[in-house]
Amino acid sequence: MLPILKQAExxxxxxxxxxxxxxxxxxxxxxxxxxCFYGMVLPKIIQVRNKLFxxxxxxxxxxxPLVSQMFNGLLSWFHDLLNLHxxxxxxxxxxxxxxxxxLRWVSxxxxxxxxxxxxxxxxxxxxCAVQTSAAEVGELSTDDDDYGHDPETSKTWESVxx
Length: 162
Hints:
Blueprint: H1 7-30, H2 41-56, H3 64-77, H4 79-82, H5 89-97, H6 111-142
Helix pairs in contact: 1-2, 2-3, 5-6
């Protein structure tokens, strides 16, 4: 027969569950085979950070060191992403362009900078597309033998040997 858990042990387990639940839920979402996109990663990491911050500053009896280590580990591992450094630009742009998140995950003091980054990339991509289209049109218009009717390279069906 198994011993009955004491009230302190039950309280520890409840607190432990409350501490690990945000991380576990986020990992489950990010591990899904379907409906998981790169644009979800940064908002989800920020969401976990904020939840751990709230839990860390709450009333904890047993798991305060665990929450502190999880919080510090998250800050250490994802420092560049969480601080929106330039190396995180791809993650930032994907998150902003994901309709589920847009700019909601960005703190109010950083929204203008993130919005400017997004707009600069949209404008850059649009001008790149226009240049590419113009170059393709130029190639087509200067290509005299697009259909093989150039007199020097023209072949008739009779002269083609198979």
